[in-house]
Write a structure and sequence with these properties.
about 40% helix; alpha/beta
Length: about 250
């Protein structure tokens, strides 16, 4: 019999990724992937000291070699176990730039993470998710969640370098959802439409009330609720925005 399933989160930082990791760590051992170790080291210590189990792995999600090495480390730590939940939260930082000033390398950088990276990550986690789907004792259907943005569905001026790969991520997510739902894997794309309340945005909208930003803990709870859905009720796309967001 396979061991206890794990959750894998890629794109762990001090805001949304950390909140997702803490929420899923209450139920599963978690593997936390990020390019920079400083993004997960403190969080790994926090989870392990609070009674959970966490492993951090420095990973370049745009590199197939790096992702393969990360999953080899995960297997060394947890054994060959199924995957209960996988969350793709990695993203290139958005930048506003006129199209005629955008370099090919800058344009490609977004695709390396949001499109190519999501593809590589999906190939890495889907076998473990399918294995979990085949278990009779699985409490919830295995879940693969992709973090999107307003740019996933709305192409604003000066944002072509960000919105193009985000559109591609959404298309990839919906395609995977249609392919793997019959196998029992729940795939969802979350459109985060608004400013997320993280250290990077602390000074943004500072004159507005808290309801003008999305709380990372609430995003994490929404992802957890998606994970709990039964096979008779799969939400494949969800909009998340704060109360005061204009849309």
């Amino acid at each position: 019999m396979a061991g206890n399933p794990i959750a894998v989160i890629v794109g762990v930082g001090p805001g949304t990724g950390a909140a997702i990791a803490r929420r899923f760590a209450t139920a599963y051992p978690v593997a936390l992937l990020a390019r920079s170790p400083e993004n997960f080291e403190g969080l790994v210590t926090e989870i392990n000291q609070s009674g959970g189990k966490a492993l951090g792995v420095s990973t370049d999600v745009s590199s197939e070699t790096s992702v393969k090495a990360a999953f080899e480390k995960i297997q060394q730590e947890f054994g060959k176990v199924p995957i209960a939940a996988a969350i793709f939260n990695a993203s290139a930082r958005p930048q506003r730039k006129p199209l005629l000033e955008l370099t090919v390398d800058e344009f490609q950088a977004g695709f390396d993470v949001s499109s190519k990276g999501a593809f590589i990550f999906s190939q890495a986690v889907l076998p473990g998710l399918i294995e979990q789907a085949e278990r009779q004792d699985a409490k919830y259907p295995p879940t693969l969640i992709f973090t999107g943005a307003t740019a996933s569905v709305k192409a604003n001026a000066l944002m072509s370098g960000f919105t193009s790969p985000k559109h591609a991520l959404r298309a990839l997510s919906l395609s995977i959802a249609r392919e793997f739902a019959p196998k029992g894997v729940h795939v969802a794309h979350a459109i985060l439409d608004g400013v997320i309340d993280i250290p990077l945005t602390r000074e943004w909208l500072k004159d507005q009330p808290a309801e003008a930003k999305i709380a990372p803990d609430d995003i994490a709870e929404t992802y957890w609720n998606l994970h709990q859905q039964s096979r008779r009720c799969f939400t494949n796309e969800i909009d998340i925005r704060p109360m005061l967001e204009k849309w």
